[in-house]
Specification:
196 residues, mainly alpha, Four Helix Bundle (Hemerythrin (Met), subunit A), CHP03086
Length: 196
């Protein structure tokens, strides 16, 4: 796999996490349940790929997903690792054209244009949290580092609330001992202790 960089560190780290999560799924792991209720590992991967394509296409005007990311079929149209590699490469290349000090940028999110750092972080959040979904569903350690989770959480508070019930579940209460990873997951409506 290549490691296409975007000039957005948080996006590069999140893309790496998604690529590694996809590459670590065992051959019998694609039908396993995930923290995304009613979706299998294959469906989460399809959703994540479609979302990365959507972010890229919103910037470039081309390469839109061919399947609705919110209605994934679970039928992977190709090698999963290649699908993730292609989608994250497209997103990284698209975001590399967005200057940090530029005007607000349109994303696939129905919340209006976002500051470039927030938009890039929204794309990153999608990749990172679904990397976590895939990893925990297949018995792998969390790919989220405290530093990455803290950066993603800072951005998430800028756009998640209007998307509750559509893209994000209600936030879960904080628990004693939570660090940045747990805080981010609970904010997104995920239990840090989720198991299949």
């Amino acid at each position: 796999m290549t490691d296409q960089t975007s000039t957005w560190t948080v996006l590069d780290q999140s893309h790496r996490a998604l690529r590694e999560a996809a590459a670590s799924v065992p051959s019998d792991g694609w039908d396993r349940p995930t923290p995304c209720a009613l979706w299998t590992v294959a469906q989460v991967l399809q959703h994540a790929v479609g979302d990365q394509q959507g972010y890229a296409a919103t910037i470039t005007g081309e390469g839109w997903p061919t399947e609705n990311p919110f209605e994934p079929s679970g039928q992977l149209a190709g090698d999963p690792v290649d699908l993730v590699e292609s989608a994250t490469r497209a997103a990284a290349l698209a975001w590399s054209t967005v200057p940090a000090d530029g005007p607000d940028v349109t994303t696939p999110l129905p919340v209006g244009p976002l500051a470039p750092w927030v938009g890039a972080s929204a794309c990153a959040l999608d990749a990172a949290v679904h990397a976590w979904d895939i990893a925990v569903a297949t018995g792998r350690p969390s790919p989220l580092t405290p530093e990455l989770a803290a950066a993603l959480h800072e951005a998430a508070v800028q756009f998640v609330e209007p998307l509750r019930g559509f893209a994000y579940a209600p936030a879960l209460p904080a628990a004693e001992g939570d660090g940045p990873v747990e805080a981010l997951l609970r904010y997104l409506g995920r239990s840090p202790s989720w198991t299949p």
